[in-house]
Design goal:
By secondary structure, the protein is an all-alpha fold. The chain has helices at 7-15, 27-37, 42-49, 53-66, 77-92. Helix content is 55%, strand content 0%. Helix 2 crosses helix 5 (77-92).
C-alpha cells in the first residue's frame, strides 16, 4: 500500500503551532476517511479495502473519536470528518483521490 503524502504539510503545521487532528489517524483510518470523502458507504469501503463491515465501522468510529466528533443529533459526524479531510487536501495542494486509498478498477 502507498503511504500518506501529508507528512510534510503536517510538519509545517506543527512548526507553526497548528494542531492537525488528522495526524492522529492510522494509515487505514485515513484510507477509510478518503473513501468516505468519495461518498462511499461503509459497505463499499469494506469491499474496496477487502475487510468486513465491522472492521470499517471500527475504523470510522476511531476517526470520529480521534477528531473529537461526539454524537450530536444536530450535526452529521461523517460530513464533519470529510470536511476536515478535504480542508487538509485543499491546503496541502493534493487533489481528490491522491491519499493512496483510491485504486483503479
Amino acid at each position: 500500500m502507498t503511504t500518506t503524502p501529508f507528512r510534510s504539510t503536517s510538519v509545517a503545521r506543527r512548526a507553526s503551532g497548528e494542531v492537525d487532528l488528522l495526524d492522529q489517524l492510522s494509515r487505514r483510518e485515513l484510507e477509510a476517511l478518503a473513501l468516505m470523502a468519495e461518498g462511499r458507504s461503509n459497505r463499499a469501503i469494506g469491499e474496496h479495502l477487502n475487510v468486513e463491515l465491522k472492521t470499517v465501522e471500527a475504523h470510522v468510529s476511531r476517526v470520529f473519536t480521534k477528531l473529537g466528533l461526539t454524537e450530536d443529533r444536530y450535526v452529521n459526524r461523517r460530513v464533519l470528518a470529510v470536511l476536515a479531510f478535504l480542508r487538509r487536501e485543499t491546503t496541502s495542494g493534493i487533489g481528490p483521490g491522491r491519499c493512496g486509498a483510491s485504486r483503479s478498477s
